[in-house]
Amino acid sequence: MALELGYLLPTREMIMSGRNETSGMLDLAARAERLGFDGIWIGDSLTARPRHEPLAMLAAVAARVPRVLVGTAVLLPALRNPVLLAHQAATIDRISEGRLVLGVGIARDVPSIRAEFEAAGVPFEKRVGRMMEGLRLARALWSGEPVTWDGRWMLDKATVGPTPHRPGGPLLWSAGTLPAALERAGRFFDGWMPNEGKPEAWAAQWREVKRIAGEAGRDPESLTGSIYLTLSLDDDIETAGARLDRYLETYYNAPAVALKKRQECFAGRPSDVAAYLEGYARAGARHLVLRFAGDQAAHLEAVAKARPTIGA
């Protein structure tokens, strides 16, 4: 299957630069689709890394771009009431006519994210169980059948409408590379989308996800392997590297050297990006979510130009 390329909209970057408007990002989404990208993605945060609310933005993107996947990379479901999330996601899936993918995660344990959970009234230490139960409840509601639920949330023969366009609801992809995250991906989710790992390491963990899926009685080939990558492209490698470091440190308020140890990043020439991305295609990845450090339009054009040489 051909490698798919997705584009992460710069919602966080817009807020960091003091711009709140959305029209430019919708233009970027439309431009990415015209250039042949296969997905438009949006990240999530409340107070830790302020940005536009992803589900609201995805509704606008889905109405603007008619062809590609629209998704979250990644959503924090534990911060949301799952009945409301199920309702929102079903509506967006109707707007997009079945193109919605919910990439989800549990969030890294850092002080700013713990504070974010506290601000939302959600116990940080309970986030894994809350996410998994909430997503099971959402899937039950997406069936359209009355749901009775006795757990963190209480429902008595409840339904939400509309039902999603995609039977069974939007696809769910999970993040994370720890053993428990791989276990969850293989047993429960439709795809796996971490943000770390060179191609060889990614491939080994992807094999583990598929092994777990098979042992759970699922078809491993029905799952989608993906990864979230950050790119900084420039004809001058030193310029690309310095820009990447500034970007990461501004985005996360942490040293770039530490961040690059736990996130997969590429700083280099546009002429070299095809070979870099092809490494993941050979490892078995089907969809790459690309975040750009620097001029968004220029990076979109550079990757689109390089794409035909992948696999050549």
Please provide a brief summary of the model.
This protein has a single domain, classed as Luciferase-like domain (TIM Barrel, Alpha-Beta Barrel), CATH 3.20.20.30. It is built from 12 helices and 11 strands.
Question: What are its keywords?
Answer:
two-stranded antiparallel sheet; 11 strands; TIM Barrel; alpha/beta; globular; 18% strand; 312 residues; 12 helices; 8-stranded parallel β-barrel
- Strand arrangement, major sheet: 1-2-3-4-7-8-9-11
Structural class: alpha/beta
Top-tier CATH class? Alpha Beta
What's the end-to-end separation, in Å? Answer: 15 Å
CATH homologous superfamily annotation: Luciferase-like domain
What is the strand tally? 11
Number of domains: 1
What is the overall silhouette? Answer: globular
Summarize model confidence as the mean pLDDT.
97
Strand content: 15-25%
Helix content: 40-55%
Low-confidence stretches: none
In DSSP terms, counting alpha (H) and pi (I) runs of 4 or more, how many helices?
Answer: 12
Q: What would the CATH topology be? A: TIM Barrel
The CATH architecture assignment turns out to be: Alpha-Beta Barrel
Radius of gyration: 19 Å
In this structure, how is the largest beta sheet organized? 8 strands, parallel, barrel
Reading the helices and strands in chain order gives: EHHEHEHEHHEEEHEHEHHEHEH
